[in-house]
Design brief:
This protein is of the alpha+beta class. The chain contains 13 helices and 4 strands.
Length: about 325
Amino acid sequence: MSNKLVRIALLTALAAAGVGCNQQSSTGSATPAAIVAPSTPDGAISASVSALRNNNVAALLDNALPAAEVAKIKTEWHNDMTKDPVTDEERKQFADNMTKLTAPDAEAKMYAEIEPQLKEFDAKTAQQMPMMIAMGQSFAQSAIQQNKDMTDAQKTQAEALLAATAKWAGSVKFTDPALIKSAIAVICKTARALNLKSVDEARALSYDQAMQKAGIMLGGVKQVFAVYGLNMDKALDSVKAETVATTGDTAKVKVTYTAFDQPFTTDSDLVRVDGKWYGKQALEQWKKKQQEDLAKAAAPATSGAQADAAAGK
C-alpha cells in the first residue's frame, strides 16, 4: 500500500474519531456531493458527522484538511498510486479474491467453506474469549492512560466507551451461523458494488473515483458491524456539537452522543486555518506522518552518499 493511502486511512480514522462517532448511507455509484466545513467550530464537527454518516470520504477529508493540502493530494494522486510496481502474483491474488467475492453463488460457497470450521473454532476459543477480551481491554486502557494528547476527562470518557465496547463484544456470538451468513452477504454485496476486476484498474482510479470506492467500503464495514449489533449510523445520528470556548484561532467543542444505549461526552480541540475549522489532532498527525515519510525517503539517498564517500568516490 502506498504511503499516501496509509496517511489518508490514518487521517480518515482520526477525523472519524474526532467527531465522536437524518440522512441515509450511500453505497451507490454516484459520487456524493461535497460537504464544506462551515466557519464555526461546532459547524465543522457537524459537517464531518454528516460526511461520515453518508459514507462521504471525500467530504470527510475536505473537513479534516485545509484546501491546499487536499489540492496537493489530488495533484500527486496518480503518481503516488502507481509508483510502486505490482507483481504478477499480486495481480492474480486480487483477481482471484474479487472473482470469489462477486460470483453469483459467492455467498453460498463462502459459507460452505467456513461452516466446517465453526464448531472447531467454538470449541477452541469459546472459553478463552472472555479472557481475550479482558486482555484487549487492559491493553487499550494502558494505551489510553499513556496518551499524552488526551486530557484526564477525555481518558475517562474513552475508558467508559472501551468498557461498553468490551461488554458488547462479550455478548455477541460472532460464530452464529445466521450472523455469519448476513455478514458474508454484506461483504459480497460491497465487493460487487466496488466493481473492480483487477489491481491495475484499482491503481488507475482518479482521486474522486477512489474516494467514491472508499465510501462504498466504509458503508460495507458499517453494515457488517450493524449485523453484530454495533450500529455506527445510529450513534452518528445522536451526535450533538457545542462550542464551549474560542480563543483566537483555537476552539474547544463539546461532543455528546449515544452508543451502546449509553450517553457519552468528549471534547474536541479545533484550530482555524484560512477561516475554516479543523481537528487539531488530525492535522498534527497528518503533518507528523508526512515528516516521517520524507525522512524515510531521504534515508536511502543519505546512506548511498555516505557509502560513496567512504569508498572515496
